[in-house]
Amino acid sequence: MAIVREGDPIIQDQFSLDQTQLITSSPIDLGHAREEPYTLFVSPSQLMCKFGRIVGRLSKALHTPGQNGNGKATGDTGAGAYLMTQGMTRVPHDFECVAFGKARVIGGNVQSTYLDSYVSTDISGNRIRRWVDAWHRPVQLGHLTEWEFDEDGYCDFLERCLKIVTPGKISDLQIRIATKSLIKQIEGLTDRDDARSRRMLAVCLLHLPPDLAPKKAKKAKK
Amino acid sequence: MAAGSWRTDAGIGDANVALVNGPIQMAMNATTKNQIAIADPVIQGILARDTGYSQLIGALGLQQSFAAIGQGKMTATAEGSDVAATNFTIGTTSLTPARREFARNASDMARALQEKLLSGQLAPDMYAMMVYEGYLVWGNTFIDLLVAHASATTYEAGTTGTGLLWSTIMHMVYDMVDRGNTGPIAGFISVKGIKDLADDTLSLGGAVQMSQQAQQFLDIGASGARIGTFFGNLHLYMNSELDTDGADTLGIAVGSEGLDSKHQIVNLPYEAISLVEAGLYTVELKRAAGGTTRTSVATYNATGIRQQRALSAIRYAT
Lengths: 222, 318
Description:
Chain A is an alpha+beta fold. Chain A contains five helices and twelve strands. Chain A has a three-stranded antiparallel beta sheet. In chain A, helix 3 (172-190) packs antiparallel against helix 4. With 318 residues, chain B is of the alpha+beta class. Chain B contains eight helices and 14 strands. Chain B has helices at residues 32-38, 41-52, 108-114, 126-147, 166-178, 191-202, 206-209, 212-220, and strands at residues 62-67, 90-95, 98-107, 156-158, 185-189, 226-230, 234-238, 243-245, 248-255, 259-263, 273-277, 282-288, 292-305, 311-317. In chain B, strands 4, 5, 6, 7, 8, 9 and 14 form a seven-stranded mixed beta sheet that branches. In chain B, strands 3, 10, 11, 12 and 13 form a five-stranded antiparallel beta sheet that branches. In chain B, strands 1-2 form a two-stranded antiparallel sheet.
């Protein structure tokens, strides 16, 4: 169901040009995009490893009314306040971001440096607006929509988000938190001897910073 | 009118009607899986608690407090000396219902022409169909709101950029039990996650692969959205409403204390044409200009994280 403000007669989407000014012969398939915007939160104790780097594991405070204490049409007040009680810090919507090699600048239809919105048509012919992170963008060929993902850019963003709460060098405990689940998985996989486990092991080692990999796993990979 | 020999296609020429309308049935869709999710005991428990909160009176939302009671131990104390008192600690969560709506238009002429074509699950009556659809869209909305909390969990299982493994699921269940979840857990993962688990099952070694649980997974894994019960407590479901984070999917495991919902039942006023007041949602009929009826399905609800210890996100490559 769509969110409607109390007293509004019918579901009406905001009418606006989409951010990238796509001219399309058929509606964009918005797939996993969210119906409402969200604000990202970062915590010094929530980390993960991505492509050999230690990055922040972000949480979303959805702006959906009714979600996690959000009031009606008040943005992320409830969900954001809840995440702050869990020791998280807001990633501001004007946070310096680079996506697809270009610096993101607020203005016009861009209301956040890390969020984008796209306008499309739903099955009933209504115009709808959906939100995705700035590192995903739709590419259209005929009626087909494919989503491109700037993995490196997103990874840089996650790393820089962590700097908000950990400006200096990350601590040993943070390294342990970030690597724990990967190392557990690697230890499990090194005990198995089949093609899939070896493939999975290679993927896990790709994400773990090389100097932190368990010795046994390095040997098994060889 | 063109005449001709009487055959199936050319027949008596223009007098043939090319096609006559068959019955209108329900189209198959990925959202069907949500109905099965609602039937899970954990989700039913959330709804039962929701009803137990009763109607909000004079306040927009509901706040709950969780007091840390019964977690301490006594301290060895020397005779005649006092022990320092421990303060009570309390965590709070809140639920503020918001309006959600879904609407359909049906013109009088369309109803006259097509209503009797409805068949199967759709009921031979447009109004009954709208009541049924109301339940379905309420269910889709509710499950979507619940699983969206995966992006705000403190605890997480799985690794970014890698496929899902049984060991990840197993560790997650034990971690959840360790945090205090001794009851059932409902787990929601996407078809990609289920495929990862299927690949993992097929690559497990001899005795493990032939175990009853692995065989059960291979046997019933594809017979419905409920993939099976694993590690004693976990009911695993396939779902399509899950959130993503970068190139990862965020599945979610919900213990009975993990999430909460609050529905505010809004009785329609006298002047409204009420089709149904089903408690969780209402269906109202509005006459628009041009002989059209607008059927409006509305609910007032909120969902929220109840206790983080009873939640875990399940991260894996999309």
